[in-house]
Amino acid sequence: MAATTICSWNDFDPLQHVIVGRADHTCIPPSEPATEAKVPKDSDMHGLWGPRPLETVERANAELDNLANTLEQRGIRVDRPTPIQWNQAVITPDFHTTAMFGCMPPRDVLLTVGREILCAPMSFRCRYFEYLAYHPLMQRYFDEDPLFRWEQAPRPRLTDASYQSGYFDEITIEERLRRTAALDFVTTEHEPLFDAADILRLGQDLFCQHGLTTNRRGMQWLQRHFPDHRVHSVNFPGDPYPIHIDATFVPLRPGLIINNPQRRLPDEQRKIFAGNDWQIVNAAPPAHQQPPPLCYSSVWLSMNVLIIDHKTVCAEASEVYQLEQLDRLGFEVIPVPFRHAYPFGGGLHCATADVLRRGGCDDFFPNQIPGTRIN
Fold first, then answer.
1. Residue 285: pLDDT above 60?
2. Is there a contact between 22 and 83 (Cβ–Cβ < 8 Å)?
3. What total number of domains does the chain contain?
4. Residue spans of alpha helices (H) in 79-208
5. Could you tell me the CA-to-CA distances from 142 to 10, 290, 365 in Å, in that order?
6. Secondary structure class of 77 (helix, strand, coil)
7. 0.90 exceeded by the pTM?
8. Segment 194-204 mean pLDDT
9. Which residue numbers are catalytic?
10. Which helix (H) or strand (E) holds 58?
């Protein structure tokens, strides 16, 4: 196997090396402040926790293996994490929770910015030790690439001070929407928190979704950590569960973004895109009315595509409207069955983390517009 090189500045330049997750031992975590934010009261997951049924794990792994094989057949190197036994307690001096989550969605944990892979300080207590599944890969990359920067954001304590007490007691969807529009979230500003999947990498600019899993303190930390980048805050008031940006706002190639029409980027925040000749189009509607059983995510995982290069994209095989839209936009579309994997952490983009894409740190936004920058 060739030596490793780590470098990726965006999600659409030609993909050469990627991590694809695994579903082994995945659990539905017990209730905690962060999971209460994610699981609707009427969800079939509400009140459940513990190991997922073995037959669902096997179906998810079959689809993850198929994704890995599809990428390898196109000459892309694929690495896989090393799952640990997720059905065990997390105990720290500050909290205790009786089970963990899994390692299907490396995109949540690992943020690749140029020659660096950064492990995120996530707000879910059940995900506190999730980075361990990627530790063997990071060790190997460190040995093989002398320019690789292996970084860990400050480990959060996740005490009760990091969450608003009683935030979700008897809350309606209308109240959720009011609070998210007002930038009032369950996570406080007590310590830096962010998920890597809340961060959109566009060369010299990082766009961060301010929501249930990423706070402004986390964005401030990112700006100080990446002083040569411009870090922006964006939000989507139509989303009652604003967790992760990649089923809401998805760049497909330079100058083109699809936006969830139910979670529209506010006009004021659109100005930086319009002022730099980026086109934002409404994403096609999902093909399904409901997510699969025991799934955290919305039907808008239809948008959660994996871009191979500026002309090629993988999309979920049954999402016919999204496939048709991508075809109309000029892409070669690779249909990949993935609905059995959805409940384990998301779609095709969620299930991967970049190691190497061919391309540089371009300035896609030379005309900076005041209003979103983090100082």
1. yes
2. yes
3. 1
4. 106-109, 135-144, 173-181
5. 21, 42, 32
6. strand
7. yes
8. 98
9. 195, 244, 350
10. helix 54-73
